[in-house]
Amino acid sequence: MIESRRPNKQRKWMYQAPLHVKRKFISAHLSKELSQKYRRNSFPLRKGDEVEVMSGSFKKKTGKIDKINLKKQRVFIQGIIRKTSAGTEKMVSFHPSKLKIMNLNLGDKRREKILMKKVPVKVEAKAEAKS
After folding, report:
1. How far apart are CA 111 and CA 44, in angstroms?
2. Which of the four pLDDT bands, split at 50, 70 and 90, describes residue 23?
3. Does the pLDDT of residue 116 top 60, yes or no?
């Protein structure tokens, strides 16, 4: 995959990767509750996930993901906008490493199945008993 460990080669590989590989790069850390529940630290982002901004001028703002740009590896969140010099409003883009997933969009059964891979059977039974 990556022959050289030189940073410029790694960056070049990352920027020139095909979209199906870049999909995996758009991952963010899970909140403490979600990481304990699903036994994993991070998960790929998807439209409809609720995220919190962890750094920058929009720190601690939350919202649902509106769109994802795979080519530029950026995520756009509903309600977070900036005024341009022309006076129009523009959505602010975020790098996935600056986001934390607070709530997952579990409308897709395949995604739920992937999440449950690492969860022990005992934990699943307890979660269903509480519901």
Report:
1. 10
2. very high
3. yes
